[in-house]
């Protein structure tokens, strides 16, 4: 709570009261806890703020994360090319990768998909749990895995991300099969047997929770 109040003074109010009035174009600050993204209409404004942002943080004993801090040209079409100090690519924020794609109607839209790092971290947690709890009953395992999948869908289940959700569920099934198979030595737990098992102990299917147009 205290760090959030501190950043409100250091960043939020500074951006609204001192930065925005001096800009040539539109700008937006999106912050969640200590993660934030700034968007600018013009390269000139973005460059000016980027040059002073580190100094602003340093003044209050803070520093920008060297690996998370990036200066990029995030436009669907880059007329005239990309400035040399900008990287024209996607970026990750709050567990999602953001990139420009063409919609079915041919419009430029921002696609949000599960970030690779978050996908791997979440799957690693599932693998660790399955390994540690491989001797628990199938019912207990199913209950935990179902809760894990539903929690994953609740956060990452947004329009345009169904394939990543399906891939995540597929990897969870592979992991569960692996550890169930290891406890049935001498009686191979084939995929046919596993599918029959899933018919009795199904896991939630991938689904979109948050829809937008």
Give a short synopsis of this structure.
With 213 residues, this protein is α+β, with helices and mostly antiparallel strands. It has 2 domains: 2-89, no CATH class; 116-200, no CATH class. It has helices spanning 2-19, 43-59, 116-132, 138-156, 162-182, 191-200; strands spanning 27-32, 35-40, 91-93, 96-102, 108-114.
Give short descriptive properties of this protein.
213 residues; alpha+beta; 2 domains; two-stranded antiparallel sheet; elongated
Task: Describe the fold and architecture.
This protein is α+β, with helices and mostly antiparallel strands. The chain has two domains: 2-89, no CATH class; 116-200, no CATH class. The chain is 48% helix and 14% strand. It contains six helices and five strands. The strands form two sheets. A three-stranded antiparallel beta sheet has the order 3-4-5. A two-stranded antiparallel sheet has the order 1-2. A hairpin with a 5-residue loop joins strand 4 (96-102) and strand 5. Helix 3 runs parallel beside helix 5. The longest helix is centred in the C-terminal third of the chain and has 21 residues, at 162-182. It is elongated. The mean pLDDT is 90.
Layout of helices and strands:
Blueprint: H1 2-19, E1 27-32, E2 35-40, H2 43-59, E3 91-93, E4 96-102, E5 108-114, H3 116-132, H4 138-156, H5 162-182, H6 191-200
Antiparallel strand pairs: 1-2, 3-4, 4-5
Helix pairs in contact: 3-5
């Amino acid at each position: 709570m205290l760090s959030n109040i501190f950043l409100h003074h250091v960043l939020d109010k500074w951006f609204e009261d001192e930065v925005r009035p001096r800009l040539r174009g539109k700008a937006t600050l999106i912050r969640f806890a200590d993660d934030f993204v700034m968007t600018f209409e013009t390269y000139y404004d973005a460059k000016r703020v980027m040059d002073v942002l580190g100094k602003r943080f340093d003044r209050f004993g803070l520093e920008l994360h060297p690996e998370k801090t990036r200066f990029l040209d995030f436009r669907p079409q880059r007329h005239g090319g990309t400035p040399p100090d900008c990287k024209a690519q996607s970026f990750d924020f709050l567990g999602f990768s953001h990139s420009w794609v063409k919609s079915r109607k041919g419009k430029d839209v921002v696609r949000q998909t599960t970030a690779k790092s978050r996908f791997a971290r979440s799957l690693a947690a599932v693998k660790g749990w399955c390994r540690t709890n491989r001797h628990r009953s199938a019912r207990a395992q199913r209950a935990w895995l179902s809760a894990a999948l539903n929690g994953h869908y609740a956060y990452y289940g947004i329009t345009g991300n169904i394939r990543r959700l399906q891939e995540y569920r597929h990897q969870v099934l592979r992991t569960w099969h692996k550890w169930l198979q290891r406890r049935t030595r001498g009686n191979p737990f084939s995929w046919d047997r596993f599918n029959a098992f899933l018919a009795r102990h199904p896991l939630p299917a991938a689904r979109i929770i948050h829809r937008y147009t």
